[in-house]
Amino acid sequence: MNPRLLPLLVLAFCPIDRLYAEDESVSVPELCYDFSNSTEDYKATCGELKTIAGLGAHGESCLSVNWSCPGETRIAKQVSLRGKQIAEAALELFVPADAPYGLQVSLFFADKDGLWFQAISDQRLKRGTWQTMDFDIAPSSIQVSPVHHEAVWNSYYSNRITSTGIQLFSPSDWKGSVLIQSLKFRNRSESVSAMRILHLKTPSATPHAFEQLELEFEISKPVANPCNPNEISVDAVLTPPSGIVARVPCFYYQPYRRELTENQIEVLTPSGRAGWRLRYTPVESGNYRWNLVVTAGKDTLSTKEQVLAVEQGKPSGFVRASKKDPHYFETADGEFFYPIGQNIHAPFDRRCAEMLRVPVLPNRGTFAYDDYFQKMAAHGENAVVIWMCNWWLSIEWTDKWKGYGGLTDFNLANAWRLDQLLESAKRNGIYVHIVLDNHGKLSKFVDPEWADNPYSSALGGPCSQPEGFFSSPAAFEIYKKRLRYTVARWSSFPNLLGFELMGEMNLVGSDRRFTGNPEESLWCKRACAFLREADPYRHLVTVHYSNDFSTVDSKVASLPEIDYLVGDAYKAGGSIVPLMVKTAEENSRYGKPTFSTEFGGNWNGTTPARLHADLHAGLWSNAMTVTAAAPFIWWFDYVDRYNLYSEYQSLVNFMKVEDRRGCNLKSLSAAAFENGKESTSVRVVTLKNNERASFWVYDTLDSEIMPENNFTRTHSGLSFNLEGLSPGSYSLELWDTFKGIIIERRTISVSSEPIVVKLPDFKIDIAGKVLPEREPR
After folding, report:
1. Is the dihedral of CA 404, 405, 406, 409 positive or negative?
2. What is 350-362 written as a DSSP string?
3. I want to staple 596 with a disulfide (CB 3.0 to 4.6 A). Which of 150, 358, 500, 631 is the partner?
4. What is the pTM of this model?
5. Strand 666-674 to 130-136 pairing
C-alpha cells in the first residue's frame, strides 16, 4: 500500500438505493450525486467546502473544495451500503492546471469501526480539464486494497461499509480548488453465472480418526451477511463407513494476525482472505463420502460427492457422562476423566485486582491464555472455564460496540480468539468448558447489560424485556442461528468439555420474580434439543446457578436434556469445607455429573490468607465427595500472582490412578480423636465403599485462614475410625497435600469394624487412601 494514498480529503455520500436485482440479468441505472443544490451536510475538518454555480462540466453547479497541501482535510458523512452490491464507480472532477503532478485520487470506503479500503483508478489524472475516472469496486476487484490491515476486499466487507468518499493526496505545496461534478455508482449489466464453489482446499495429508481436519473454500454468490443462514446456508453431508449420515454446518471465517502493543494490549488485524470453513473430526477410520450443499435465496448448489480416506487413529477427547456411572465423566477411549483447573473467564479480572489492591492486568488477550495454559499444564491441570462475555469472547452484541454488528452479525475477531484459545488448550492437554452467555446480558437487576442487548426492542430486537428472550419464538429463531454458528466453528474440537447455555440462570430477568419461572426450563429444553440435532458430536450441555446449591432450580436440573450441573460455592465466612460437602450432596441427587465452576470467599472476594485456605481446603474436601471434577476457583489472577499452581499439582498426583466409576462411593464427615478424646479442632471427610476409602483430615481453623509457616500447629497422636470395610488386607497411603507425595505407606488388616487409622504428626492437614493390597497403584 502506497503511503501517499492515505486519506487527505475524504468525501462521503448519502445512502444508496438497492443496486441489484435477483433475476438472471442485472441492469441498474446510474445513481448520480451532482451537488447541484448544497453540500448535502458534509463536514470538512479543514478547508472550505461549498457549491458553486456555473462552473460544472456543462455549465451547471458543482462542488468546490478549497484546500492546501501538504496537509489533510476530511469531509465525511455516515452511509450504509449493506445489501447494495455495487460494482463500479465513476468520478467526474476538475483539477487545476497548476496542481502538482504528485496529486493522486482514490475512492475511500470504511466500516463503522474504521477498517479502511481504498480503490485506485487505472487512469492517469489530467490537469486543466474535466475528466471522468472509473473505479472497479466489485467484490472481486483487485483495485480495492486495504489500508493498515491485510483483509481482502469482498462482498462481506463491501456490505459493511458505513462511509464512502474521495481521497486526494499530494506531498507538494499547493493551494487551490478541486471541483467535483458527480460520483456515479452502478452495477455491471451482465448475466449472473451459476453459484459455484471456488478455491477449495482439502487436507494435504491423509487425516486420522480423532484428529480435527479443516476444509477451506469460497462461494461465488455475494451475500450481505454470510453468518445468517437465512441468507446463505452451507452444510457438509458426510457419510462415514458406518453409514450414519451427518450433516455438519460450515461457517464464515476471517483470518487475523495478533500482536502485543508496548502496553501489553492484544491487537488483532484482519489478515488474508475471508471465506468458508468446514471443521470436522472423524471418529471412524475408512472412506468417508462427502459433498457440500449450499442454499442462498432461490439458488441451491450440491457439489459432486467425493471420497475422503481416514486412517486409524487413537480415540481421545469428546467427554461424555459415563455409561458405567452417571456421576462421572469419561473420554472417547473409555478412560475416567476428572477435570482439574481454574475459571479463567477473561484475560483480566477487575474484581480480583480490587480485592488484592493491585493494578488491573492489561488485556493481553490470547497471549495471556498461552501463558496460563502452559503453567497449568506444567502442574497437571487439565480443564478451564472460559466466558463468552461481551468484553471478551462474545460473538453477538449491539453494533454500538466495536467488532459487533447486532443480531446474527457475528464478531469474527472474537471467534478467531476462541479458535486460538481452543487450539492452545489442546496443545496443553486442557479441556474447555465454554459459557455461551453470562447472566448480565439478560438481567436488569444484577450486573445489568440488557440496555445493550440487541434482542431488546429498544435496539430493534424482538423482546421488550429480558424475560422475552426465554419465551419469544422470534427470539429463539434468532438465537438458533448463533447456536448453529457455535456448533459449526467449535464442536469439532475434541477438547471441548461442554457448553454452558447460561451462567447464573437465577439472576436473569427484570427482577428476582422471574427466578424459577417455567419459561426457563422450557427454553433449556428447546436449546438442548437444537444442539442435539445440530452437533454431530453431542457435546455435553449444562446451565449454571450462582451463590450456592440453594439457588438451583430443580425443574431445570432434573431435565434429562441437561447433561451435567454446575454452580457456585460462595460463602459469607467460615470454613469452605461444610459448603463443599453440602454442595456435592445436594447437586449429586440429580444423578448426573456435577461440580462447582466458581468458588473462593464470597462473590466479591476475601483476604489472600482466607482465599488460600479456601483454595486448598476446597480442592481437598471436594475430592472426598461424589463430584465429577475439582472446583474451579474464580480468582485465577490470585493463583497466578501468588504462584499457587502447586496446589493443583498435589491434587493431580493424588487423583492420577483414580477411577471412581461404578464404585458406589459415599461421602461422610467424621470426628478425629486426639489421644483418645474427640478433637475440637480437627475433622475428617471420607469417601468410601466397602472395598476402598479416601480421606482428608484437616485443622478446622486452618481451613478458614491459611497460617503463615511460623504460626502452623503440629497435631500429634491423632486417629479416626474408618467403618464399613470388608475383611481383608489393605494398603494405607498417607499423603502430604502440599507436596503431593506419599509420605508413608503401610499394610493394615481389617477383621472387624471399625478400624482405627493412626496418623503421623502433621500440620494443617493430611490425606490418605485405603486400597486393597491386590490393586495396582
Report:
1. negative
2. HHHHHHHTSPPPP
3. 631
4. 0.94
5. unpaired
Angle at the Cα of 134 from the Cα atoms of 129 and 139, rounded to 5 degrees: 160
Do 606 and 614 touch, CB atoms closer than 8 A?
A: yes
SS3 132: strand
Type and span of the H or E element at 425: helix 412-427
Number of Cβ atoms within 10 Å of the Cβ of 734: 19
Nearest one of 700, 618, 694, 701 to 658, comparing CA atoms: 694
pLDDT digits (tens, 9 = 90+) for 236-251: 999 999 999 999 999 9
Which among 519, 509, 478, 485 has a CA at the least distance from the CA of 499?
485
- Integer angstrom CA distances of residue 644 from 67, 575, 633, 635, 736: 63, 19, 12, 11, 16
Taking the C-alpha atoms of residue 272 and residue 256, their distance in angstroms, rounded to an integer, is 7
- The whole-angstrom separation of Cα 611 and Cα 598 is 13
Among candidate residues 74, 119, 63, 86, the one with its CA nearest the CA of residue 16: 86
Q: Which residue has the cell 476402598?
A: 692
Alpha-carbon distances of 589 from 327, 442, 562, 626, 648, rounded to whole Å: 9, 29, 14, 10, 27
Quick check: helix, strand or coil at residue 402? Answer: coil
Nearest Cα neighbor of 685 from 585, 546, 574 is 585
pLDDT computed for residue 192 by the predictor? 60
CA-to-CA separations, 435 to 63, 162, 388, 543, 669, in angstroms, rounded? 54, 32, 6, 9, 33
pLDDT confidence of residue 736: 98
The contacts of residue 745 (CB under 8 Å, 6+ apart) are 731, 732, 733, 734
Strands 150-151 and 266-272, by their bridges, are: parallel
Judge contact between 543 and 562, C-beta under 8 A.
yes
**Is residue 347 a contact partner of residue 617, using CB atoms and an 8 Å limit?**
no
Q: Cell numbers 490418605 label which residue?
A: 768
Residue 451 cell numbers, joined: 440496555
Nearest-5° Cα angle at 635, 591 to 331 = 40
**What is the C-alpha separation between 107 and 381, in angstroms, rounded?**
53
The residue assigned the cell 442435539 is 532
Across the chain, mean pLDDT equals 92
Which residues, at least 6 apart from 238, have a Cβ–Cβ distance to it below 8 Å?
245, 246, 247, 248, 280, 288, 289, 290
- Whether residue 24 contacts residue 191, with contact meaning beta carbons closer than 8 Å, is answered with yes
Residue 534's contacts (CB-CB under 8 Å, 6 or more residues apart) are 249, 483, 484, 487
Query: How many angstroms from the chain centroid is the CA of residue 262?
Result: 25
Q: Render the burial of 667-682: b for 16+ CB within 10 Å, e for the rest.
A: bbebebbbeeeebeeb
Strand partners, 11: 75
Which three cell numbers mark 739? 507436596
**482 contacts 490 by C-beta, under 8 angstroms:** no
Give kind and range of the element (H or E) at residue 534.
helix 518-534
Q: Report CA-CA distances (Å) from 213 to 170, 508, 530.
A: 49, 38, 24
- CA nearest 585: which of 598, 597, 602, 567? 567
Say if CB 651 and CB 637 are below 8 A apart.
Answer: no
What is the predicted pLDDT for the residue at 776? 55
Round to whole Å and give the CA distance between 271 and 146: 10
260: CB partners within 8 A, 6+ apart: 266, 267, 364, 367
CA-CA distance, 49 to 25, in Å (whole number)? 40
Give the residue ranges of the chain where pLDDT is below 70.
Answer: 1-31, 189-192, 775-777
**Measured between alpha carbons, how far is residue 279 from residues 384, 388, 488 in Å?**
22, 20, 7
Angle of helix 608-622 relative to helix 646-655, nearest 10 degrees, comes to 10
